[in-house]
Amino acid sequence: MKKQRFWMRTIILGVLVLAVGYSLYANLTKDEVHKVEIGKKAPDFALVDLNGEKHQLSDYEGQGVFLNFWATWCKPCEKEFPYINNQYKHFKDKGVQVIAVDVGETEFAVRQFVDRHELTFPVVIDKKEEVMTTYGVNPLPITFLIDKNGTVVKSHLGELTEEMVHNYMKQIQP
User: Fold this and answer.
1) Alpha-carbon torsion 60, 38, 40, 45, what sign?
2) What value does the mean pLDDT of the chain take?
3) Cα angle vertex 29, ends 138, 133, to 5°?
4) How far apart, in Å, are the Cα atoms of 3 and each of 6, 10, 14, 17?
5) Does the N-terminal or the C-terminal CB of the chain have fewer CB atoms within 10 Å?
6) Pick from 143, 40, 62: which is nearest to 101 by CA?
């Protein structure tokens, strides 16, 4: 009986040591996450939208950019999209652009979501999650406000109301 307990404790201890070792390894070797700093230039990127058009952030200099990271499974993202869409229609001719960056989902899933919600602004897919990593995105949704000079002036983590979207777009309007 003592021998059986000894082996059981040894196995449990071994599993715990492996778990701790793996955790340390995973944390020490993970990709470095960069946080975007308010008041600094927004990191440039280029992604393709659902129509095959390339959107490079630096091409939007001179305009305000409402940069939103989202996913189809994110309920707060889904709730805020009608507000973003409504305000985009109001501000797009006033120098404010929206770029909605889906993080790592299939084009099929994203296209279905966009069609179902009748979104009119550019939706791009960060298939390799490189832009997400560069911007330090986690969790979703998160929105970055970028002014006409390409400077990040604000970030908002979490769901937006229509009033917030309106005020943010007004803030970055050139």
Assistant:
1) negative
2) 89
3) 30
4) 5, 11, 16, 21
5) N
6) 143
